[in-house]
Amino acid sequence: MTNQEAVEVLLQLAQEIIRSEEAQRARISGVHPAFRTSACNFVHYLQLRSEEIRELQEFLHERGLSSLASSESHTLAQLLQVIRWLAPETDLTPFLQEKLCDFPEGNKLRRIHARKLLGSALRPDLPRIMVTFSSDMADDRMKIEELLKAGMTIARINCAHDDETVWLRMIQNLRKSVTKTGRPCKVYMDLAGPKIRTVRVPGRDEEGYELKEGQRLRLVPGKKAEEKKEAKKVGRIGVAPAEILSMLRVGEHVYFDDGKFEAKVVEVGKKEAEVVITRISAKKPFLKAEKGVNLPDSDLEIPALTEDDRKNLPFVCQHADLVGYSFVSSSKDLMHLREELARMTVKPPAVVLKIERVAAVQNLPDLLLCGMQEEIFGVMIARGDLAVEIGFERLSEIQQEILWICESGHVPVIWATQVLENMTKTGFATRSEISDAAMGAMAECVMLNKGPYVVKSVETLTDILVRLTGHQSKKRYVLRPLSIAREFLNARPGE
Length: 495
Prior knowledge:
Layout: H1 3-23, H2 25-29, H3 36-49, H4 54-62, H5 75-86, H6 103-118, E1 128-132, H7 141-150, E2 154-158, H8 164-181, E3 186-190, E4 197-200, E5 209-210, E6 216-221, E7 235-240, E8 253-256, E9 261-268, E10 273-280, E11 286-287, E12 293-294, H9 307-319, E13 322-325, H10 331-344, E14 350-355, H11 358-362, H12 364-371, E15 377-382, H13 383-390, H14 392-408, E16 413-416, H15 421-426, H16 431-439, E17 445-448, H17 454-469, E18 472-473, E19 476-477, H18 483-490
Parallel strand pairs: 1-2, 1-17, 2-3, 3-13, 6-7, 13-14, 14-15, 15-16, 16-17
Antiparallel strand pairs: 4-7, 5-11, 6-10, 8-9, 8-12, 9-10, 18-19
Helix pairs in contact: 1-3, 1-5, 3-14, 7-8, 7-17, 13-14
């Protein structure tokens, strides 16, 4: 590739970017004014990432120029700057906009949106830390104070557990702790959504129902899960909601307990289905009640907003700063929630879209443009269900793509599920989860789950994020001075 050829490719890319913006003009005009510039850049980045530019990138990198690899927040501005470096005489007037989103503007917008949604961070460049409250937080104010001092900035209440009485005590304790410590903290309430769960399993053993590969299970409505004398050879597992059973098809995969147990549908009845266990990855092969069930192959027509969610919304509207929308699939789901919130209050909590379904990944651009219609909104990468839905081998790729696409729209991202999971439960971290936690530095917030050692996990995560943000801003590397380099260069030869 020659300089001239590279310039021609870049100009063609710029033309395509402008055309895509014009094609999406109506959608862009429909977003909130606070997201207008962000929406334009978002469309620019999507157009760039729809093209094959790897040969161009190699050419630019060899010449010490920007390869466009970190242009998420300011795509067109970066592209035009590269053209200026290669061919300063080029007339770029047709591509110049009234308010072109350049690097400083992109960074500014990203931080503004993050602050509006997630509140203040311990430091401007540091991701926030969200902690899931366990039931004991309703009575243990000292624990909450410890979490605030360790670095927690958002408290998460999972509406799938406990009830309004417990939630209220949690929030009251949090408010008192915030006043005492002087550490601000937002309240995030997670709607349960249509989470498919095991509700009853055979036997009374607290350890659960032991499974073996090749074993058959009959999935039945939760209320009919009691084992029948004539069916002891096939364990009866109660599942809710019951209507999903009629949506299953022979050959489809079924996963239990975050993918620890893999099965395949071998028989489907009117209100029941039979599966065979094909793989077990759990150290202890026991399936318990209240464990998640994932059906990645199934076409499930279940609304994201359930009746239980609707019942909880008045409380959420009264007490929460943010509301997490579970198992969202399309912009129709988001519009449905907005309608419900508008009926209940004139100032609803900010919505966080939880990306945990294949459909949500596929519809992500549409979901983000719909989300941008509000002044404040964000995204959570709910990696537990997402990994099972898309396949564990694809999780690393997909979570990166979500981060890039959200950054192009300056949309805040929460990095969630099983971050420092072993440390939170046992007090000791694995090498792999330390590396995984470091990945959270690319998001605007990192979520920790509940556990007896959660304070230690918050302290550890804070330390990791402080260190990483000295080296990295989103996915762009920052070359702060390295002590290892200084010590070598300052040492006398032979020392």
